[in-house]
Design a protein that fits this description.
Two copies of one chain form a homodimer.
Chain A lengths: L2 H8 L6 H10 L4 E3 L4 E3 L7 E7 L2 E6 L5 E7 L9 H4 L5 E4 L3 E7 H10 L1 H27 L2 H18 L3 E2 L2 E3 L4 H8 L3 H13 L3 E4 L2 E4 L2 H8 L14
The structure holds a DNA duplex.
DNA sequence: CGTGCCCTTGAGTACAATCAACGTTCGTGG
DNA sequence: CCACGAACGTTGATTGTACTCAAGGGCACG
């Protein structure tokens, strides 16, 4: 059930048997969430965090005029709101983008972890810092990359992150999002998103259709995106 | 010396006498850094973190074409790279924007903290999550706010963050940045930055001149920015 | 088999970038 | 003390990327 979560952690550090059992003892039974459901709203007081087991979720913020910015996409294995453990309430919303399976962990258990399992604490601290690193890369995309580069970059990021949990390879990956969803990640309008995807398709770099990203030329996609995996911290280190 | 840092922490949670002594025992003597100096480069392996005592620093990432995105500004009292404790190396650079005074804390001491001071650990974990919240707000700005709203928003954020450490009030604050620096925060060109500042000045909202932000109409500035302090987590909570 | 959601494309517009020139300020050395 | 240069700021003219408005097509699902 939490195997994808463990794959994500073990891509970055060792997780001992004892730690694995501790994690398992924290995790609630799995429940299902319908697509498009916002499960956490900005400002809600929270007493547990959500582990995404299957599906895709996002963090988003809205402006008064109705425009929306997705600030991060979450894939299976991600702790989507581990940061609520110290923040107590969130500054953003969390929504299921596809049908999802989740489990939860009580903040009381996490507090116990900080008192009794320092290495695991550091590892989970690390994963929230990883989310921040993704935020920074998106800031760079939104502030400085062109529409086509930004789009290629998102596909590069998802290919690596989904790859870690066995859901992507060099040929591509399933991605059950609409062009409107992508536009909300990439800070553009749906119309321009459509034209940018057409551009990438016409250049034989990558094709997004039927809820699947088909990578035609991974090297060129990465070149267009100026993609480097460094911000995803894929080295195994003692954290 | 670390009084501004304590002000920042105590704006969000209690810090006991014992914890304060522990922090003091970690912190190295202060040293000075010249303006424009990049003190940490992406990829460097790090064994200590930097506490900013006076001045302003930034985190930035560059693209191959030379364009730069500043992903966060740091004010006195901020731990500018506490996240390097778990990340081991950074995905971005850190530069002094003004002459600065810093101190450092060894990661070995922070590791001891995670083993012996769980509440302080959670509080510092919180501060890295606070940085991530700022990143998210900037993603929203870069992706969805107009140039004028984005600019007003940055001034609003700095006014609050500097206010916490006693360096800003409702009338304004000192800000020793150039228009190029601001442009690199806000994802625009220096020319457009200049015109946007002129726009805000002509509207009698806020004026940036002589390295000072003079706030003419705080309420209107916040309205233009669609600013809310929620993402800065100003409530005192048991973290 | 219609209705709604998503995708696509065209036409016109606008916000911001680019290119270019000039002004201002300030530090420094002749 | 003034001349000079460098960095920063300002403005105008032009270009271009992306937005807006609009219409129509494809496809899935009830």
């Amino acid at each position: 059930m939490i195997d994808k979560h463990l794959l994500k952690l073990r891509a970055r550090d060792d997780v001992s048997e004892v730690e694995e059992s501790l994690i398992r003892s924290f995790v609630s039974p799995a429940t299902e969430i319908a697509a498009k459901k916002t499960i956490i709203r900005a400002g809600d007081r929270l007493s547990r965090s959500t582990l995404l087991l299957e599906g895709m979720m996002c963090r988003y913020k809205d402006l008064a005029n109705g425009s929306r910015q997705i600030t991060e996409l979450h894939v299976a294995g991600d702790f989507v709101d581990l940061h609520s453990f110290t923040l107590k309430r969130l500054d953003h919303n969390i929504m299921a983008m596809t049908p999802c399976v989740i489990a939860t962990v009580d903040h009381a258990d996490l507090k116990r972890m900080t008192e009794e399992a320092p290495h695991l604490t550091r590892l989970y601290w690390f994963t929230t810092n990883l989310d921040a690193a993704v935020h920074r890369e998106w800031e760079l995309s939104l502030g400085r990359r062109t529409a086509i580069s930004r789009t290629a970059h998102l596909f590069c990021e998802l290919q690596v992150r989904l790859g870690i949990v066995g859901l992507a390879d060099d040929k591509g990956f399933d991605l059950a999002l609409t062009q409107v969803d992508l536009a909300e990640c990439l800070g553009m309008t749906p119309v321009h998103m459509n034209r940018t995807l057409k551009d990438l398709r016409d250049q034989d770099v990558v094709e997004f259709r039927n809820r699947r990203v088909v990578i035609r030329d991974l090297a060129r996609m990465r070149r267009i995106a100026e993609f480097s995996t460094e911000y995803l911290y894929l080295d195994r280190e003692a954290r």
